[in-house]
Amino acid sequence: MKIAILGLGYVGMTAAACLASQGHQVLGIDPNPTKVDAVLAGKSPITEPGLNDLVADAHTKGRLLASTSLSPEVAEYELVIVCVGTPSAVDGSHNMSYIAEATRQLAEFMKVHSVSDLTVAYRSTMRPGSIEELIQPIFDGALGANSCRVNVVYNPEFLRESSAIKDYFAPPKIVIGTKNREPCPALEEINSGIEAPVFYVGYRESEITKFVDNAFHAVKTTFANEIGRICARLDISAAEVHKIFVSDTKLNISPYYLRPGGAFGGSCLPKDVRALQHIARTTGGYTHLIDSLIASNESHKAFLYDHVTQGLDYGAQVLMLGIAFKNESDDLRESPNVDLARMLLTAGFRLSVYDPHVAPQNLMGQNLGVLSNSPFITRLLITRDDVERTEWDLVIDTRSVADRYSIDAARIIDINRLA
Asked: Ranges for the UDP-glucose/GDP-mannose dehydrogenase C-terminal domain (predicted)?
């Protein structure tokens, strides 16, 4: 395949060399003549283990060329990969001027040369909505009705500097964002032979992927360092603690606790987070990430209330499926569902609760204390018959169990599946 790559930085240069090594004919385009001259001399303009050898080999075989501008032969190419920079702007957003300019140049090039059926894949990290709100309008403005000739795709990269070549051929996943989540033949061809999970998603889902990954990597690093500070203050081996922590691939290093949904609660998480905050304060651990957990969780409770009541009329008939902390449990201790019920009642909604595992007469200890502090729970509880013979304006499913019942409802929201 003939492929043009706009931008010969770390991402673009790695992609150019790796694609050429697979037998594709690649043209790298960058306005920096120093980079272009290096590639034309068979050298990599950036330092990355193994990259210089790939560039030299591709140069020798005539598979990798470079230019400071779009040359006429690109009109015959099948794929253009955009890898220009999106550096931070003063306000923290991405500076999208390079993306916009590269897109304008490409659109004008296509208009002048009557290019047809071109796939343009963007790999630069960009704000969700950029394809639909910035890039596609540029193509539409330049090409008019002929903009349908351009197949715009978003294909984020997951390369780490110093292991970029290895990551290119063995990525953790392949994410491809298209207009209708349909397969992209050009990207399927260049990814042929690469073993990785493939996700065809919408533009916005693909655009946010890199943000989610990098933010989580930052969270993990910060969390590890905060725990390390506490351990150092308490004369605990952080290395031993880390060894124990990462050995748990059932809960700690796993998909658990990572699905967007309800707030955390129960007898353990809030209590232990507060206690760890206290330990950090009294030892000088300075755990700003850990300190933010409770506040963020409270904010999520407020978000869930706004989420479920959006467009709901005052006095609406509302059913909550589950009020205890977890399904098949009567544990009410710090249940976020109790807080949500309180907010709904305060706002004037007619609320009922069905939780077959919560029987007020059987509660004891701290759970009985919760009932004493929130006596409204008892009068909200209804039977299954009540659930199935009532017409509900809204059902809030805190258990993902609504499909088990015959419910007549205008709207059912599963708060464990935010979408």
From this structure: 319-404
pTM of the model: 0.88
In the set 83, 148, 231, 268, the catalytic residue is 268
Contact indicator for 294, 264 with CB cutoff of 8 Å: no
Residue 46 — φ and ψ, nearest 5°?
A: -125, 160
Question: 101 phi and psi, to 5 degrees?
Answer: -65, -45
35 is in an annotated binding site: yes
- The answer to whether 363 is annotated as binding is no
Whether 134 has a binding-site annotation, put simply, is: no
CA 84 to mean position of chain CA atoms? 21
Structural domain 303-414, CATH architecture: 3-Layer(aba) Sandwich (3.40)
Give 2-203's CATH code, choosing from 3.40.50.720, 3.20.20.70, 1.10.10.10, 3.40.50.1000.
3.40.50.720
- What is the mean pLDDT for each group of 10 consecutive residues in the chain (419 residues)? 97 98 98 97 96 98 97 94 93 94 96 90 96 97 93 96 95 97 96 96 97 95 96 96 97 93 92 95 94 96 95 96 91 93 96 94 86 89 97 96 95 87
